[in-house]
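Batch job 17 of 40 flagged for manual review because the log was empty.
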Amino acid sequence: MGIKTLEVKLGRISLKTPIIIASGIFSYGEINLDYLDYKKLGAITTKTITFNPRKGNPQPRIWETPSGMINCIGLQNPGIKEFINKKLYSINIPGIKTIVSISGESTDEVKRMTELLVKKGVDAIELNLSCPNVNRENIMVSQSPADTYSFVKAVRDIDGNITLIAKLSPNITDITETALAAEKGGADVLNLINTVKAVAVDIKKKRIIEGGLSGSAIKPIGLRAVFDVYKKVKIPIIGTGGITTGQDALEYILMGASAVGIGSGLFSNPYLIDKIYLSFLQFLKENNIKKISNATGLLNEKKYKGAEKRED
């Protein structure tokens, strides 16, 4: 069974595998990690960039919790102009796509960033609408379907051809509402989910660490989001959140994801990519499935209902 069985299409880009490095894990992809088998990756997402430089939040920025960790980096980054000047918008690794993650405080900011990135010919833009570590007193864009639609449409209006991914927050009553708003606004792909808002207590120093929870603890939340959204939208989904084993990644595919985003799981297991890659191939072989895309949503009731209609 060859590698072509793992090829997937997301919007206007094709990936040789459905394995994507999530934003914030490998900085801007400029560091080549010798232990990583890049041939098994489909894409790397850059650390989120904003219009103006950001210093980020004060320490501590990382706090370990049972089955996960809380991060409150605060989108530290050099700003879009320095990002482009240093050519951080492309990882320059043959066969691997670059997804540039951006975040803005207004539709005007995301428009201006998109204009600059389109001129550089980026493969895809991931619009981060869901970071819980910035302007904590305000609601996130993806907590409002109306704001989600406006921000996505603002980027789409700049360029109708670039692959546009909307990254959504689970910190909402019904994530399908913002998913549908993003699709209506022109998103080609959805990324579900970002971190879950959480706090930890440092008793010794009598302080609270506030940020976004990632790690295996949030996998059931991510799976539920993908399961629900897959039934409502027509565009592909990247399943992200709590993937620490090959089986975790496979579960996202079976719930309705076309690709998977790997994040904090790499911190504890630097060879996680290899395990996911092998798990995908093994599942396809054992179940006599020719392509990984045919496994998307295999255990989702949307798939069952579609099969019943075809039989009728």
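Reviewer: the log was empty due to a logging misconfiguration, but the result itself is present. The CA atoms of residues 246 and 279 lie 5 Å apart. Unflagging and moving on to job 18.
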